Please model this.
Amino acid sequence: MIYSMTGYGKSVVETDSLEISLEVKSVNNRYLDINIKQPIQFLEYELGLRKIVKERLKRGSVNIYINVQKKQGGSQSSSFNMENLKELYKNMLDISNKLGMEEPSWANLLQFDQIYEKNSSNDEDLKSSLNSCLNGALDDLISFRISEGEKLKIEIGNYISNIRKTLSDIEDLKESSTQIQFKRLKERLSKNLTDIKVSEERLCQELAIISDKVDISEEVTRLNSHLDLFDKALNSDESLGQRLNFITQEMHREANTISAKTNLTDISTYSVKLKENIEKIREQVQNIE
Model:
């Protein structure tokens, strides 16, 4: 199954006192890069959240946004951290005096989470809620990735079909192309060697060697083989983005060699079409997990 690395997911979980909203966004990346933006008081849960992401995703740049709001009328199981409360009030009072503002109110102070003492009995519940919220958002993200992956598969399949058709056209011409180039070389040499006697047999041998160097049969065969391997990988259940990228590089190499070897206009035109479609595949493969 094809998984795109582009996706989005969101989940909301409510507890007695909190509403946890979590969003996950991902784009393509060579490796798995996880960035988590969360309230500072939840930093201790970050390693656990990263572990969950690593278990469910293989590649991509993943950004996680966690927003936690206290519910109106919710049960408050925390007591005040008096040291933090005094320090916060002092800092806010200093700023208010310098800016000529009103003194900080009790309502202002209650907005800051660092004034509360954490109740250890609720740590596990909060951790469980965060994990549940993350898994819900990842479920959404993965569904999005699968949907986008199916679109990528169809699009890449169209490019593969174009390449196979172009290769078929090249194969129709390649047999005669060697003979045509042999004949051109012979005519050119005959004009330039009018004053030099060269045996016909020796001339044909040298021309045959040169003609063999411009033969593209092997490149066409290898490119067809790469296409078969690409199709097989595309329908695999494994994480295959990097493998497809490597195969695409080999396909590009064979197409370049075909273009470099031939002097025939028709085959040169077809080789350009080959490279155009392979480049489009390469662009799409960059977004496959």
In short: The chain has three domains: 5-72+126-145, 80-113, 151-285. Strands lie at 7-14, 18-27, 32-37, 60-70, 79-80, 116-117.
